[in-house]
Write a structure and sequence with these properties.
Pfam families: DACNV (PF21751). By secondary structure, the protein is of the alpha+beta class. It contains 15 helices and 21 strands. The chain has 2 domains: 194 residues, no CATH class; 246 residues, YojJ-like (1 (3-Layer(aba) Sandwich), CATH 3.40.1700.10. It is 34% helix and 25% strand.
Length: 456
């Protein structure tokens, strides 16, 4: 196994705790992987180079020290960007641009100045701007107002944000919690003395999209039927649009549960089990069941309405074969699309709130909400050993004893061992997220690596 591959699975128990210098070394190791750099920089890697190692160590170490300070008993949180102020346009601003505000004189770059500026530089709206001089090192030039749209890519949402420039960005989200990014893409994070590389965004995996494909297939068939029954010209849709909408909703559900700090368990079952699971069965009991009315299928109906509305508003008799998809959806200014988008995420927040009751929120893979307060049967065989996936597709894994996790995790393991088509998403009170499934002959879990953004 290569040095870089080893570093991706590094844990404190193996190598001791990591600190800023280790994080910088890890980043430079990753920078030797040309394919990784090309993905990170969206193919524009030749236009960006890392700062000198000594400068980067100064920046990360200073941010680390600032993170250990307190602001009226609140943790210090901020975002920081290394980029000269003149590279930002003076006349732009949110929601479609960056608002540059330059101090009348530069400020020293140290942990105390960062501590003083952090309350004014709201984490979700503003970055602290710094530049680097070879002789003096880093200096603070002012503030950069980004607005909040950048969070939609993290929490799930439709609104687009101006892309972060190809510059080094640092997130400080709590004591010893630092993430280093190139633009919008995270290179690595330091949290609890452990370095993580966010390569495991399970939502990008083929297996998860295939497993949750029932909703997309059904909405696609219903959309095609609606298209055939209209005499208006509709644009052709990207067949994956329904899947993209569903994925964003699941991200929102997870982020809301994480923000609640009470944890939760989401169980996704095959659609054909809906009737069986609401009667006596050996798998789980749903304390609060919903009747089989259309309201249980609201997510499906909203997704279909979005697809039909998008196809209709982009229909052009002069371009009948024009295809539209996710980008047209997120960029649409149509009021009906905006209302449907808001409705989708109201449903997501509603589902997340149900997880506050002990037990699982039970949903079919077509996003039909069966109920909440689900209790997984204690009669199911216990699971002694599970596989910890080391890549998004689960092609590489390591065996792990299940005894180190809590009751919620062990219940999810038991269910997935018995129901091989089930998917369980376990959100802990400490905000960690595991996605669990029967995979390659055993119960397997994926850590949904945190982005460094609070709440996800």
């Amino acid at each position: 196994m290569s040095k870089i591959k080893e570093s991706l699975t590094r844990t404190p128990s193996q190598f001791g705790h990591s600190y800023p210098r280790d994080l910088v070394s890890f980043i430079f190791e990753r920078w030797e992987d040309e394919a990784f750099v090309a993905r990170l920089c969206c193919g524009e890697s030749g236009e960006f180079q890392l700062p000198d190692r000594g400068i980067l160590e100064q920046v990360i170490s200073t941010c680390y020290q600032a993170s250990l300070l307190r602001e009226e008993e609140r943790p210090v949180m901020f975002r920081l960007i290394i980029r000269d102020s003149y590279l930002f346009a003076a006349h732009e601003g949110p929601p479609t641009g960056m608002h540059r505000l330059i101090f009348s004189r530069t400020r020293p770059f140290n942990e105390y100045e960062l501590h003083r500026l952090a309350p004014a530089a709201d984490f979700y709206r503003t970055l602290i701007g710094i530049f680097v001089e070879p002789a003096q090192g880093a200096q603070i030039w002012g503030l950069l107002h980004s607005g909040t749209r950048w969070m939609h890519a993290v929490y799930g949402g439709r609104k687009t944000s101006p892309p972060m420039p190809l510059s080094l960005v640092v997130y400080v989200t709590g004591p010893g919690q630092i993430s280093v990014c190139i633009g919008d893409n995270i290179i690595a994070s330091l949290n609890g003395g452990q370095i993580n590389c966010p390569t495991l965004d399970v939502f990008n995996s083929k297996w998860l999209n295939t497993s949750l494909g029932a909703l997309n297939a059904e909405t696609w068939a219903l959309h095609q039927a609606a298209r055939a029954s209209t005499d208006r010209v509709w644009a052709e849709l990207d067949p994956q649009l329904g899947s993209s909408i569903g994925q964003q909703a699941i991200r929102r559900i997870i982020s809301v549960i994480r923000n609640s700090n009470h944890g939760g368990l989401l169980v996704y079952l095959p659609a054909e089990m809906a009737e069986e699971i609401q009667e006596d069965n050996p798998y789980l009991t749903i304390k609060y069941q919903f009747l089989e009315y259309d309201s249980r299928q609201r997510f499906l109906s909203l997704t279909l309405r979005i697809m039909n509305t998008l196809a209709e508003i982009y229909g052009d008799p002069d371009s009948p074969g024009k295809q539209v998809g996710w980008q047209e959806y997120v960029n649409s200014k149509n009021e009906n699309i905006a209302l449907l988008d808001e409705a989708i995420f109201d449903v997501a927040h509603f589902i997340a709130a149900l997880s506050a009751v002990d037990g699982a929120v039970v949903i079919t893979k077509r996003q039909e909400l069966l109920g909440f307060g689900g209790v997984i049967s204690g009669d199911l065989d216990s699971v002694g050993m599970v596989a910890h996936a080391l890549d998004t597709e689960g092609e590489q894994s390591e065996p792990v004893l299940s005894e180190a996790v809590g009751t919620r995790h062990r219940a999810a393991y038991r269910l997935c061992q018995r129901l091989h088509q089930a998917i369980a998403i376990v959100i802990s009170q400490d905000e960690s997220v595991q996605i669990v499934k029967w995979h390659n002959g055993m119960v397997t879990y994926w850590d949904q690596v945190p982005t460094g953004v609070p709440g996800f």
